[in-house]
Amino acid sequence: MLRLARLAASVPRLQARPTTNSRHSMAYSAKIGPSILSSDLSCLGSECVRMMECGADYLHLDVMDGHFVPNITFGHPMVECLRKTVGQDPFFDMHMMVSRPEQWVKPMAAAGASQYTFHLEATTNPGNLIKEIRESGMKVGLAIKPGTTVEELAPWANQVDMALVMTVEPGFGGQKFMEDMMPKVSWLRSQFPSLDIEVDGGVGPDTIHKCAEAGANMIVSGSAVIGSDDPRSVIALLRTAVAEAIQKRSLDR
Ligand code: DX5
Ligand code: ZN
């Protein structure tokens, strides 16, 4: 409770709405991106195809370098293979949990990544990195770990396509959802009404309503989708919850 109050207090309250020069002119919509981290990694290609066939809107690919996070997954050579397997259409949101995000921009673009989501904590020059990602032809996502405030993300929000609010400490699938991150999502939604806001970590049928009500519209779900006997129904349930919250918000305006 104390922790919740402290985090809520760290959310900035009075700030001018930075609506001018916003790159988010389109209304946002509900999108579900399975994280394939918890799938059988020896079958990543067929798992990606299966997720798209089950109605996924995009694929969330977790890149870990064993340094920024205490775990290691895969890099751009794997992305290149996945792109060949799934074809040109699926949107690849690369969640770059790496210490030197600058290093992988060009290789990821060449491998077929659609969006490069880097961590604010991993760079000293977000502005330059945003520029490099865009010049490489990818969309830009900006992620914050649970200990980072939205105040730190806010100055960049109008320059990126998506903000990712982590709802677990990055590194592993299957962790408990941190509800005390929701004030960050609500604040971002109030300040940036058209921004794509993603949540990642512990999100599934039990926690989706909190995320949807707070204003998240891009939903990463790993174990809840991959571990289900019926991923199609879970994806549909998640999307309906978000779509209903979006509709309610637009009626409340
Ligand atoms: C954690 C990763 C997540 C993770 C989500 O560091 O960024 O994408 O795979 O998995 P679940 O939904 O199981 O928490
Ligand atoms: Zn992730």
UniProtKB/TrEMBL annotation:
Transmembrane domains' residue ranges: none
Keyword flag Cell membrane: no
Keywords from the UniProt entry: Carbohydrate metabolism, Cobalt, Iron, Isomerase, Manganese, Metal-binding, Zinc
EC number(s) given by UniProt: 5.1.3.1
Active-site residues (renumbered): D62 (proton acceptor), D200 (proton donor)
Cofactor: Mn(2+); a divalent metal cation; Zn(2+); Fe(2+)
Reactions catalysed: D-ribulose 5-phosphate = D-xylulose 5-phosphate
Manner of cofactor binding, per the entry note: Binds 1 divalent metal cation per subunit.
Ligand binding (a divalent metal cation): H60, D62, H95, D200
Pfam families assigned to the protein according to its UniProt record, in alphabetical order: Ribul_P_3_epim (PF00834)
A GO BP annotation: carbohydrate metabolic process
SUPFAM superfamilies: Ribulose-phoshate binding barrel
Residues annotated for substrate binding in this entry: S35, H95, G171, F172, G173, G174, G202, G222, S223
GO molecular function, one term: metal ion binding
Function according to Swiss-Prot or TrEMBL: Catalyzes the reversible epimerization of D-ribulose 5-phosphate to D-xylulose 5-phosphate.
Quaternary structure and partners: Homodimer.
Similarity annotation: Belongs to the ribulose-phosphate 3-epimerase family.
Name of the molecule in the record: Ribulose-phosphate 3-epimerase
